[in-house]
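User: Here's a protein and a ligand (2-phosphoglycolic acid). What would the complex look like?
Assistant: Let me lay out the input and then the predicted complex.
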Amino acid sequence: MRRKLAAGNWKMNGLSASLVEVEKLLEYHPKPACEVLICPPATLIAQLAWRIKNKELAVGGQDCHWNASGAHTGDISAPMLVDAGASHVIIGHSERRADHGESDALVQAKCTAALAAGLTAVVCVGETEHQRDTGITLSVIGMQLAHSLPDDCTAARVVIAYEPVWAIGTGRTPTLAEIGEVHDFIRKTITTRFGAEGNGMRILYGGSVKPSNAAEIFAVSNVDGALVGGASLKASDFGAIIAALEAA
Ligand code: PGA
C-alpha cells in the first residue's frame, strides 16, 4: 500500500507571518490520514520545522545543490536542508528547469545528493504545451524519468511528481484520462526499472490542483497524491485538498 501524500510548494511566497497558515492547517487536520508535506521558501524552513516539532507534518526544501558544501554562492546543499529540519526536497521542478536551465543530468545529480543526505526527493517531470500538442508527451516523460532518476531510487525515498508545465499556475488541467494515461505510463516505467521499489513509489499529480478538482483527480489510477502550488498557501484550500485525499 502506498501512503498518500499531499505536498505543498510555496515557491517564492511567504514571510514569517505566513506560518500562521500552517498553524491553522494543523488545527484543521491535527492527525491527517495521509502524509502532509510543506515546502516553504528556504528562509522559513528552520522556523517552520521548529514550530511544528512533534506534529504530523513534514517540511521540505524546494531545491538543493548537487554538492554537500563548497564555493557556490547563494546555493543550499542537501545536508543544510537536513540541518534546518527538512526531511524532503523538491528536485527538478519545471520552474527550476526553465528559470535556471536545469537539465535531466543536473536533476539526477541533485537527487543523488538529496538521497545521500537522507532526504526524500520529490522529482518533477512534465511536458510543455507544445510537446503535448505535438503528441510526444509520453516520450518526453520517459526521457525525463530515464535521465533524472539515479539508479538507487527506492519507494521510501523517492516520489515522482507529474506536473504538465502548461497546467502550473494556469487554472487549466489535463483531462482525467490524460492524467491517468501519464500516471500509468510512469508506473510502468519505474516498475520496469526499479521493480517492487518502483511499484511502491508515490506518483503525485501537480498543476492547478484545487479544492474543486482534487477529489476527481485523486480517483484516477496511480495518482497517490498531489504537489500543490497556489492552493497550498491558504490553510482552508490546502486543508480541503488534504480532506479529499484522505477520503480517496
Ligand atoms: P500550482 O503549482 O498548483 O499553483 O499550479 C503546482 C506546482 O508548480 O507545484
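Summary: The chain has one domain: 5-9+43-227.
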